[in-house]
Design a protein that fits this description.
Helices cover 71% and strands 0% of the residues. The chain is an all-alpha fold. It has one domain.
Length: 167
Amino acid sequence: MSKLRLIDERFREDPGHYVLQTLLAFGVIAAIVVGMGILTSGTVVAALGASAFIVFAMPHYKTARARHLIGGHAICLSIGLVCSVPVRLIDGLAGNEIVLGLIAAAAVSLAIFGMVVTDTEHPPAAGNALAFAIASFGVRHVLFTLGAVLLLACARHLLRGWLRDLA
């Protein structure tokens, strides 16, 4: 019979690193949300929160690299914006749940395709493809997202020798 394990054994060996990396994540996310201003919807911030998890809990994984973090978000944001064009141009589409659902599905599937073809896989970025496809986001949302992603990439780069994979 296996023993129920609530706490990771690695945490027990070095809790300080876990706590410090979590506090660093707090600082970067606070800088993004407070310092840059809450300029966007919760959906976009949620995708960035998932990206922060990858950067601070799994910094040595492929998806945490700058190419994947920045490239994945840039591709998905672009795909989301392109997919939003029909909603922006045709009256009545924004209120049609079936059409919005199909547009959202197209955005996510194209985001997956775009990321795997360009070797920029970053799963949280697919959330931005969906968000930008169905919401009426503007330039400030794009700039907020790109700025936040760049801040996460810079934080990972500056801390790369110190951060450990916690997951």
